């Protein structure tokens, strides 16, 4: 059977690109090539931008209720096409099918419905006479065309996080999915036909060079990326050339701060869930566990046992708690980081590849690390979790904040006042108390420091895709 060659989605149709380069799309469960994707070139990006720009006047002038209706129809279509979306993504990620169905398809449809409602809830400063004889008011408007780049760890959900708010407020868009996981985004484009007007949503395939062409193109007024710190810096620099806005959701090194009044067994099980979910390929996943010294040894024992219960690499994806690392380069990077652990570090479980095919890696727990170690400071983005001990609340906060990332964190304690103090002092865009990683469409998601700026989800995320205009009129 021949390997399919994927196509761009421009102006409502799948079209062959001008570029002749092709990328292999590999199933990370097997290492087999399942498709080939084009590397879009400048003329392809020009075509997509032209389609988005031509579609903008009609889409932006639709009433909020009309845009809401289209997004609600798209959400229904996502639900109705769950099986095809799951299979398209499973081929590219190896994630358990049930995980994709629940956490990306069903959750994505729900979030589209939130964005549909948000289309009708934009607010601005009330009109008033701030100068004598003059009335002023504020218009909140769409930006125009936006460029977007999505990552490989949650391909469908991250596309929805980009597409939903942009379209809700009247923008049109050109989006590039990751070069390793394009198929679920293309399936989303397919099911949008007949629901979204032609040119409103355009998908172009390619590599980092293609992404740079989108970022530096003169048409978009905003570029948005979810990705690594390195990629975010490149986007910010590229956007600066044309003074366009940038929206950056980047890496994380999330701590879980565990105090000695918790139920150790229960807390270890919960933290294992939130650490090893999606093979740790989640910028909000727990990567560092900071445990008060009086329960440190007991927690390490319990957490190690919980890690060993999280299965990966089974022949049936339904048996896996998490799937493979996404691609060979990333797999080699994680393997290399574990191999480079300092001599004082102790691996209590894991640390090795699982099986001989695919990119599966054992759930891994590392103790006796120091704050300055690379495994503590740098993003691993894999199922590798460090455990450190602390003595006091103040020390815990200092250790938790002592990384360049500031996306997500959690505090685990039965002491309500302590939970409030620590949640105040943790320097992260999200702080969970006695839980972690859970998101809801109504609440914002985004970080500080090297984790980027701008918010996804919530009305804050929607407003990021708008601009503010002051209008003043003489009363006579």
UniProtKB/TrEMBL annotation:
InterPro entries: Ald_DH/histidinol_DH, Ald_DH_C, Ald_DH_CS_CYS, Ald_DH_CS_GLU, Ald_DH_N, Aldehyde_DH_dom. The keyword Cell inner membrane does not apply. The active site is at 249. Keywords: Oxidoreductase. Residues 22-471 form the Aldehyde dehydrogenase domain. GO terms for molecular function: oxidoreductase activity, acting on the aldehyde or oxo group of donors, NAD or NADP as acceptor. It comes from the Bacteria. Belongs to the aldehyde dehydrogenase family. This is Aldehyde dehydrogenase (NAD+).
């Amino acid at each position: 059977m021949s390997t399919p060659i994927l196509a761009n989605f421009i102006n409502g149709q799948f079209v062959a690109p001008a570029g002749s380069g092709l990328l292999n799309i590999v199933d990370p469960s097997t290492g087999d090539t399942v498709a080939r994707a084009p590397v879009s070139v400048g003329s392809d990006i020009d075509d997509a931008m032209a389609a988005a720009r031509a579609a903008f006047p009609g889409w932006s002038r639709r009433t909020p209720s009309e845009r809401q209706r289209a997004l609600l129809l798209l959400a229904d279509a996502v639900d109705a096409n769950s099986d095809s979306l799951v299979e398209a993504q499973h081929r590219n990620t190896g994630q358990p099918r049930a995980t994709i169905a629940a956490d990306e398809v069903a959750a994505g449809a729900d979030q589209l419905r939130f964005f549909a409602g948000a289309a009708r809830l934009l607010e601005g400063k009330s009109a008033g006479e701030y100068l004598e004889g003059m009335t002023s008011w504020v218009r909140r408007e769409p930006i125009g065309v936006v460029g977007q780049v999505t990552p490989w760890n949650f391909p469908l959900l991250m596309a929805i996080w980009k597409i939903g708010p942009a379209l809700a407020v009247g923008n049109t868009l050109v989006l590039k999915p990751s070069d390793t996981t394009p198929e679920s985004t293309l399936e989303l484009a397919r099911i949008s036909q007949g629901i979204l007007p032609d040119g409103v949503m355009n998908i172009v395939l390619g590599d980092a060079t293609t992404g740079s062409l989108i970022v530096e193109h003169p048409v978009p007024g905003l570029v948005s990326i979810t990705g690594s710190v390195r990629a975010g810096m490149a986007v910010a620099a590229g956007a600066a050339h044309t003074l366009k806005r940038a929206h950056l959701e980047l890496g994380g090194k999330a701590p879980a701060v565990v105090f000695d009044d918790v139920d150790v067994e229960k807390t270890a099980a919960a933290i294992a869930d939130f650490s090893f979910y999606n093979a740790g390929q989640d910028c909000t996943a727990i990567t560092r566990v900071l445990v008060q010294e009086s329960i440190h040894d007991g927690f390490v024992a319990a957490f190690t046992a919980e890690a060993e219960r999280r299965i990966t690499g089974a022949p049936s994806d339904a048996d896996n708690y998490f799937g493979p690392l996404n691609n060979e380069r990333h797999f080699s990077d994680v393997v290399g980081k574990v191999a480079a652990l300092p001599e004082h570090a102790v691996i209590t479980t894991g640390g090795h590849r699982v099986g001989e095919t695919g990119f599966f890696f054992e759930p891994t727990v590392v103790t006796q690390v120091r704050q300055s170690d690379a495994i503590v400071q740098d993003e691993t983005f894999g199922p590798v979790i460090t455990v450190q001990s602390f003595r006091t609340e103040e020390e815990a906060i200092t250790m938790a904040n002592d990384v360049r990332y500031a996306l997500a964190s959690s505090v685990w304690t039965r002491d309500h006042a302590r939970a409030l103090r620590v949640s105040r002092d943790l320097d992260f865009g999200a702080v969970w108390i006695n839980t972690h990683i859970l998101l809801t469409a109504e609440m914002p998601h985004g970080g500080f420091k090297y984790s980027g700026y701008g918010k996804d989800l919530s009305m804050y995320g929607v407003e990021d895709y708008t601009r503010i205009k002051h209008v003043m009129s003489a009363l006579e």
